[in-house]
């Protein structure tokens, strides 16, 4: 089995992996890298796009799905497989992050999408692909690819200790690509959620909480202790996520439905509210927060960022200028979670995706099988 590192290794963004066995070639995720120059914005394909038999997406966030139109423009004609939730959310991701020319030439191919449920096992050519819930977003999955002699696990984005979402146990494998987004950060999601709630409570006149529409929005809703507002465009999508009860921890759907029913709708023409205001996306590159971040900053309205801030993104620039605060809301594994994932998978050889090289090194002191030298563009054989 050959593993091609198309993106996300030694860097954050454009997560994408190729898997080849016999005559079958798969591509797992097709992300973009926010803020990168054109050559580094899209995956670095190591095989011609027309030779890839299937693309499988773990979820619809831009660093995993934003290059779909580009891949089609490159000549990809294979199968496209994803969950129903990913199919629903990917068009908005492409609208915000796809190259305009690629999107115009190759819009989201809804009629070509093959839907699977988390937990299903898929068969493509010589390969059998197990799937499981990721704990990251509703409809998010991990992939375990088996060709009969070797098994490779692509975690995608996972959260083993989320209080909102459920993550299924990964199987043992020969090689695992860990979600190393946070390097060796040891601070738990529970601690960070408390810190966010305290920050919000200290600002009773209101604040802005930019957040991805899927995943972290529900984590923030669960963390907030008091009333809050949401951008009105988010309500339907949040309700759909909450209705997907099998992705949520026991009792969480009822709790989140109650929170959503109490949330105030807010639209662009209104004054900034005297409440915490959730608006997507998380870095201010797209969606309502692209308009709200500069408005809030100009008005001195407090801003709390809680996720990845790519260099040059609106959120990163405001934070660097001291005009926005940042507290990470863990929606990826912290150190104990990744160690447990690796040990549960049989302590296999490991890669770390979505992490710059310097931050990967401390993680390697806790996971001795972690390869620190792997980079986008490499090909490995297992």
Describe this structure in words.
This protein is α/β, with parallel strands linked by helices. It has two domains: 2-184 and 331-381, Ribonuclease Z/Hydroxyacylglutathione hydrolase-like (Metallo-beta-lactamase, Chain A, 4-Layer Sandwich), CATH 3.60.15; 190-326, Rossmann fold (3-Layer(aba) Sandwich). It is 30% helix and 22% strand. It has 13 helices and 21 strands. Helix 8 (235-243) runs antiparallel to helix 9 (252-262). The N and C termini lie close together (6 Å). The model has no long low-confidence stretch (mean pLDDT 96). Keywords: Hydrolase. This is MBL fold metallo-hydrolase.
Q: Tell me how many strands there are.
A: 21
CA-to-CA gap between the ends?
6 Å
Q: Say which CATH homologous superfamily of the largest domain is assigned.
A: Ribonuclease Z/Hydroxyacylglutathione hydrolase-like
- Side by side, the strands of the main sheet go 7-6-5-4-3-1-21
Backbone structural class: alpha/beta
Strand content: 15-25%
The level 1 CATH classification of the largest domain is Alpha Beta
> How is the main sheet built?
7 strands, mixed
Question: How many domains, as an integer?
Answer: 2
Q: What's the architecture of the largest domain, going by CATH? A: 4-Layer Sandwich
Q: Tell the overall outline.
A: globular
Low-confidence runs of at least 5 consecutive residues: none
Q: Based on the structure, what is the oligomeric state of the protein chains?
A: single chain
Mean pLDDT: 96
Q: What is the CA-based Rg, rounded?
A: 20 Å
Determine the CATH topology of the largest domain.
Metallo-beta-lactamase, Chain A
- Give me the number of helical elements: 13
Percentage of residues in helical conformation: 25-40%
Keywords: Hydrolase
Pfam family, one: Lactamase_B
Domain Metallo-beta-lactamase: 13-199
Protein name: MBL fold metallo-hydrolase
